[in-house]
Amino acid sequence: MATEQELQSLFNTLDRDQDGKISINELFLSPGLSAVISSETNTSSPQELLVQYDSDEDGSITFEELKKAVKKASNLT
Ligand SMILES: [Ca+2]
Ligand SMILES: [Ca+2]
Q1: How far is the CA of 65 from the centre of ligand 1 (A)?
Q2: What is the pLDDT of residue 47?
Q3: Which of 1, 10, 35, 38 is the most buried if burial means most Cβ atoms within 10 Å?
Q4: Of 50, 19, 71, whose CA–CA distance to 11 is shortest?
Q5: What's the pLDDT tens digit per position in 2-57?
Q6: Residue 76's beta-bridge partner residues?
Q7: Separation of 77 CA from ligand 1 center, angstroms?
Q8: Where do the domains of the chain lie, and which CATH numbers do they carry?
Q9: Which pTM value belongs to this model?
């Protein structure tokens, strides 16, 4: 479970180039944080997260997409 604030800070840490999106490469660069994202979104890997929740199919996850994913997994408090 995470609050929106915790998600935002997790997101900012993962978004290394600060372009407002988390790319699959950024997920792979931080395996520990990436595992937290997987558990909060009930996905088994960064690939699965992208397949299921990259709704505009740009190959990266925005904060809105991440929030939707965590909400759908019922892990947003
Ligand atoms: Ca980025
Ligand atoms: Ca996207």
Answers
A1: 14
A2: 96
A3: 10
A4: 19
A5: 999 999 999 999 999 999 999 999 999 999 999 999 999 999 999 999 999 999 99
A6: 2
A7: 25
A8: 4-72 (1.10.238.10)
A9: 0.94
